[in-house]
Amino acid sequence: MGATVTATAHPPGLGASALAPKLVVDGVSKVFRRRKSSVTALDAVDLHVDAGELVCLVGASGCGKSTLLSIVGGLEEATSGTVWVEGERVVGPGADRGMVFQGYSLYPWKTVAENIAFGLEVGRWPRARRNERVAELLGVVGLKEFADALPRELSGGMRQLVAIARALATEPDLLLLDEPFGALDAQTKRHLQDFLLTIWRQLGATILMVTHDVDEAIYLSSRVYVMSARPGRIAEEVEVPFGQVRGSSIKRDRRFLDLRDEINELIG
Length: 268
Hints:
This protein is an alpha/beta fold. The protein is 32% helix and 23% strand.
């Protein structure tokens, strides 16, 4: 694990032996200070993600969604408040959290297989286990025949599949997705949404995803956290009444349409 924790620390309100959520965000605030002014991006944000949940964060542009995800990922430091993953307090990046961004972030000089293997090499996985894990993930994302291809030889959707496989490679406790499908065309986006649902079901992944697309959030999520405009706060927690097996027909379900109206109204 990359996160660290004091020996007696545990998430708020839960003893060390209690069954805690996979992720707990407790009172997180973020203030960006400038020479003569400051901007409060996040104000006392509380949320949780249970093991095996796929939860989305939605809100207007500039509400702090990506900032919050960066704090959970350990890339940004909170001004106040605490983040816990698997009962450990997050103080920086760690292999317990895999991150995927909108811009793919692949190493252009490495092959697909080498990109997926990168975190395993850093983590000093034995070569045989590393190769086994890469082969497994190439199968999961359907890119076995592209193992030796470079990122420039792939479509945008395929590059994002590689990025997701790389994030999953180290078997993280939590997968963090920051608008991962935002730059893709509509058809590719639908394909990758269904792929993500497959990963969620088959691997039992725990996922926190930022998106500006309300339909996407409802289609994918167990729950949706709606954030208010700056300073970012949790305006509402919305339960999504669909199971893990989903298809395009749910977008015509009256409950889906009602949720979309409710969330859009909350965003304003």
